[in-house]
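dumping this here before i forget
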Amino acid sequence: MPELGQGLVIETGGGVCSGRLPIDSPADFYIAGSFDHLAKLKDGTYAVVDDKTSSAKPENLLAEKQSTTYASQVNAYAYALEKPGTQGWIDKVYESKNHVNSRRMVPKIAREKICVSRLGLNNFAVDSLAHTGNGAFNFSTSRVWAEIGKDYISLLALCQKIADIVLNPTQPDHSVNCNFCADFIIHRNSG
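structure:
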């Protein structure tokens, strides 16, 4: 990724779990997930890079669209890397029955805190696709790099909105095809 300058991708598909989020809630909320790539940069800081695949529609080739659409996701990974949960916190998450669809995303071992200085997206827009037989496909892509600004204020504001919805006694409208909604309903009905 020439946009990052000198460095080395040191991890692919790594799991993250933040500590308790600093939001106004009686319940414990945290971020858990799995990033695509973590690169160690020449200056000793780190970059979080997420890969996306899309069609080659002109709007998908705009870095600004990509950065707006996925800014929260990449910021969430960076936040969890900079403010990781302790081993005690992670153990508490695994011991608790009060969770919604999250333990499968939580690594079992705490991470060391690191400094993330860069966030970005690699969007691989598929230009063409051809079936070559035996279940194989050839395809070509255009890669679009989108730099993402660090914005933990907006991330935590979004987390606050999610917490408010989750703790609201009146369930919002939901989609029958949404796995999070299904887990939410099960969690709400069991509590």
